[in-house]
Write a structure and sequence with these properties.
Distance between the termini: 28 Å
Strand order of the largest sheet: 6-7-8-3-9-10
CATH topology: Rossmann fold
Helix content: 25-40%
Shape: globular
Radius of gyration: 17 Å
Number of strands: 10
CATH class: Alpha Beta
Largest sheet: 6 strands, mixed
CATH superfamily: P-loop containing nucleotide triphosphate hydrolases
Number of domains: 1
Structural class: alpha/beta
Length: 220
């Protein structure tokens, strides 16, 4: 699902990181930790094709990102990647159902075909009865469930989660992380969880640490 080889990022002459290698197959769920400022979110941006690396290669489901222009990268993100963020990023003026349906609308899935997909994923994340609720009517945990449903409704190959429980209390965070893991595994996606939390990282199959010199399976 994901192949990253020799990836490097720089700001001018300053090396943020280099020599990053990562291979993920379907169902793999990896956590990435590291000190603040080491570039964890930047790494996700590179993997998503939002930034271009200084060196190295990235391929998602066999498609090399360097081969794609901006329009093709946008299409690949819509088709192949699901995003879950700390700040939820749900649209406040759309109800839960419409928020979750957005990726399908962007992919031009006919409206008649969206309902079943959206209803199914809302049931899986425990929000079937909240389909017509507006974001302001939901708790933080429910908002993050909306974000997870939206990230998975279009059946992406890769899920990128950036501190998805940073705004949640510990009990709610644990519930959301368990849900995210179960959904990723059930759907056969690959997933990267960026987190500062040891508890969050422990829900992944393995934990890697990002440093200036790349990814390591243990802290320095």
């Amino acid at each position: 699902m994901l192949s990253v080889r020799g990836l490097a990022h720089r700001y001018g002459d300053r090396v943020v990181f280099e020599g990053v290698d990562l291979e993920l197959a379907a169902g793999d769920y990896v956590a990435i930790m590291g000190e603040s400022g080491v570039g964890k979110s930047t790494l996700l941006n590179l993997v998503a094709g939002l930034d271009r690396p200084a060196a190295g290669s990235i391929a998602i489901a066999g498609q090399g990102l360097a081969e794609l222009d901006d329009d093709a990268l946008t299409r690949l993100r819509r088709e192949r990647i699901g995003f879950v963020f700390q700040a939820f990023h749900v649209l406040p003026y759309l109800d839960v159902e419409a928020n979750v349906a957005l990726p399908l609308a962007l992919l031009d899935v006919p409206a008649a075909a969206r309902g079943g997909r959206v209803g199914g994923v809302l049931a899986e994340v425990g929000l079937a009865e909240r389909a017509r609720s507006l974001p302001r009517e939901l708790s933080g945990g429910e908002l993050q469930r909306v974000a997870i449903a939206r990230a998975l409704v279009h059946r992406p190959a890769l899920v990128l989660a950036d501190e998805p429980t940073g705004n949640l209390d510990p009990d709610t965070a644990a519930e959301v992380l368990d849900l995210l893991r179960r959904q990723v595994k059930q759907r056969g996606a690959a997933a990267i969880l960026v987190t500062h939390s040891q508890h969050a990282a422990a829900t992944a199959d393995r934990t890697l640490v990002l440093t200036r010199d790349g990814l390591s399976s243990r802290a320095e």
